[in-house]
Amino acid sequence: MRKFYEGGFQATMNRREAALILGVRESVAAEKVKEAHRRVMVANHPDAGGSHYLASKINEAKDMMLGKTKNSGSAF
Amino acid sequence: MAGRLLANLIVMGSGIIGRAVFQAYRQALANASKSGVAQEAMQNGVRKAGKAITEQEARQILGVTEKTSWEEILQKYDKLFENNAKAGSFYLQSKVHRAKECLEVVYRSQGNGTPS
């Protein structure tokens, strides 16, 4: 049994957390990201007992993995 | 013969270096505590350990309000936990689990619903 990750979500998402949410590696191909996003979204869909908060996190993770949000939290 | 000598030398050398490193570390700690760097480092550690989940976030994760009963929360949790075990990710499963842990404490202190 693996140990659960501590605490809540990070205040600002980074690529590492995005990859963890989707259950993929950071260096994964775009096609695989979409596949993982569909899989995780189905499991956590608000219409099927999931929550909107988790759904928004999953979407944010997908956008980050596909490079749509250039948010590295730093000026460089 | 030469091999044994060499091995002896290496073992002795590493022992000495190890002790030296340890002493240097202790000295550095002592210096730091004088200048207050250690206190800052300690506070950082505490903040990181205290990066716990808030009740508000826990409720958002499970999609429940303050009026939701403990039974309903458990149902939500079971479903999300199972779903993420099957098709989701371990990270999300962790968050769901931490959210339930957090709310369990809240509900126990209130004494309604009596989480077992």
From TrEMBL, chain B:
Keyword field contains Nucleus: no
GO CC annotation: TIM23 mitochondrial import inner membrane translocase complex
Keyword match Membrane: yes
Top-rank taxon: Eukaryota
Membrane topology: Peripheral membrane protein
Keywords: Membrane, Mitochondrion, Mitochondrion inner membrane, Protein transport, Translocation, Transport
TM ranges: none
GO annotation terms (biological process): negative regulation of defense response to bacterium; negative regulation of defense response to oomycetes; negative regulation of reactive oxygen species metabolic process; protein import into mitochondrial matrix; regulation of auxin polar transport; response to molecule of bacterial origin
Cell location: Mitochondrion inner membrane
Pfam family for this entry, one: Pam16
Family: Belongs to the TIM16/PAM16 family.
Protein name: Uncharacterized protein
Species of origin: Arabidopsis lyrata subsp. lyrata (Lyre-leaved rock-cress)
